[in-house]
Amino acid sequence: MKTLATAEDKAEIMRRLGTIGPTSERRWGKMTVGEMICHLSDALRVAMSEKDAKPISNMFTRSVMKWLALNGTMKWPQGVSTVPECEAGKGGTPPAGLERDLRELGELLERFVTRPRTFEFADHAIFGKMSDAEWQRWGYLHMDHHLRQFGA
């Protein structure tokens, strides 16, 4: 299973991020490419306790849904809503410029994977408490999902 904890999987994500540009077109959803990059950054900020997100979890999302999302073999489905704090046009960070936003995402990703940690992982708004390994798996899957959304 791919995870940001392995150098080769992280390098794959970084390479794919490098293919994103102003002409990248979405294959599904509503976000622009700039909003997607900011969404990924906001999600990492929430994970690293730098941005708050109101919990919306329940017993099902913290157990069955979390297990399926992190361990299942199918790709994450399209069109699943995010928390408002990470959603474009609601509480999400607005794009400031694609090059700048991509650079910031790369810096956040680097801090997310670097050990020893300089932060404490927050509880995931939907999946609840997660281990370091689960956060690294989630990070890979979340980025993969949105990079596929833009053909990267």
Q: How is this fold's topology laid out?
A:
Elements: H1 7-17, H2 33-47, H3 59-71, H4 98-113, H5 132-149
CATH class: Mainly Alpha
In total, the number of domains comes to 1
- Class per helix and strand makeup: mainly alpha
Uncertain residue ranges? none
Order of helices and strands: HHHHH
The DSSP helix count reads 5
Instruction: Please state the CA-atom Rg, rounded to the nearest Å.
Output: 14 Å
The residue fraction in helices comes out at 40-55%
Descriptive tags:
152 residues; mainly alpha; Four Helix Bundle (Hemerythrin (Met), subunit A); 5 helices; 0% strand
Report on the structure:
With 152 residues, the protein is mainly alpha-helical. The chain has a single domain (7-149), classed as Four Helix Bundle (Hemerythrin (Met), subunit A) (Up-down Bundle), CATH 1.20.120. 48% of the residues lie in helices and 0% in strands. The protein contains five helices and no strands. The chain has helices at 7-17, 33-47, 59-71, 98-113, 132-149. Helix 2 (33-47) runs parallel beside helix 4. The longest helix has 18 residues, at 132-149. It is globular. It starts with 6 loop residues before the first helix and ends with a helix. The model has no long low-confidence stretch (mean pLDDT 95).
Short description:
This protein is mostly helical and 152 residues long. It has helices at residues 7-17, 33-47, 59-71, 98-113, 132-149. The longest helix is centred in the C-terminal third of the chain and has 18 residues, at 132-149.
